[in-house]
Amino acid sequence: MGKNITWHQSTVTKTNRQEMNGHRSCVLWFTGLSGSGKSTLANAVDHALFSQGFNSYVLDGDNIRHGLNSDLGFTKEDRRENIRRIGEVARLFVDSGQIVLTAFISPFLEDRELVRKMFPKDEFIEIYLHCPIEVCETRDPKGLYKKARIGEISEFTGISSPYEAPRQAEIVIETNKLTIEQSVKQIMLYLIERKIL
Length: 197
Hints:
alpha/beta; five-stranded parallel sheet
């Protein structure tokens, strides 16, 4: 970064925006294996928030890789940069007073902790979608596990690249046991209990 760059403070603050919105802002960071239900659940929670008049937006892994991160591959270094960029974008959304939901495998503990440190303690909520890989493979909506098993995809999380489960996620959801509706309810109750909503 250049030495002549200074962060410009907005006239309208995050607190101003939260007060106008009628809720606090935060990032709901969905993590888990491919097929664990991250995008599905993030969008279901987003719909529930929107239906109740809250300001929210989903940042989805595939969508981000179509634009902002289209220059990145799937090496460990590229995955780290992918998550770092998403963390920075999520931080801007939180600063704008919104609830941002991120649906990314984000397989490495170190990378998720890097993002966590970008936020005040109560503004980063890690949601671990715990689902056995055998179940994820049966879902496999994009056929990625099948391709990874026969070697058509390298560096695939859970097969040829590791997934490091969270040690202390704020919310853990077993998506092979709970319905979408039950999972949404669990997250919404957490947001209410923490006085975010």
